[in-house]
Amino acid sequence: MKLVFAIVHDEDETEVMRSLNEDGFSVTKLSSTGGFLRAGNSTLVVGVSKEKMDRVIEIIKAKSKSRKKLINSSITPAVNSAIAPGYPIEVTVGGATIFVVDVEKYEKA
């Protein structure tokens, strides 16, 4: 068994969850905040058999879109150190960050 953690943009979360549910996968949603832009994300957790793991990842990738966004360069120290404070810069946000871990034991009570 595998446990899939997918961090997706809040704008994509509903469509990703709907698509996973339509394919018969149960999903748990955790609200989260990204450290770089301090933007809202959702961390989706899916327990799945090894055989179905690729399908889960395929759905997440298909429904998680990257997009360009203008941000103020002073929003985060990592950006601020490279560019003059207050200057707008374009960054890519969205998409999905996916982690897959092995599950040693699973019980449902």
Describe the structure.
There is one protein chain. This protein is of the alpha+beta class and 109 residues long. 26% of the residues lie in helices and 40% in strands. The protein is built from three helices and six strands. It has helices at 10-22, 53-63, 77-80, and strands at residues 2-9, 28-33, 40-48, 66-72, 88-94, 96-102. Strands 2-3-1-6 form a four-stranded antiparallel β-sheet. The model has no long low-confidence stretch (mean pLDDT 83).
Q: Which characteristics define this entry?
A:
109 residues, alpha+beta, four-stranded antiparallel sheet, two-stranded antiparallel ribbon, 3 helices, 26% helix
Query: How many strands appear in the DSSP assignment?
Result: 6
State the major sheet. 4 strands, antiparallel
Give the proportion of residues in helices.
25-40%
Indicate the mean pLDDT. 83
> H/E series, N to C?
EHEEHEHEE
Number of helices: 3
Radius of gyration of CA atoms, rounded to a whole number: 17 Å
Low-confidence regions: none
Q: Judging from the principal axes of the Cα atoms, what is the shape?
A: elongated
Secondary structural class: alpha+beta
Strand order of the largest sheet: 2-3-1-6
- Portion in strands: 35-45%
Can you summarize this structure?
This protein is of the alpha+beta class and 109 residues long. The protein has helices spanning 10-22, 53-63, 77-80; strands spanning 2-9, 28-33, 40-48, 66-72, 88-94, 96-102.
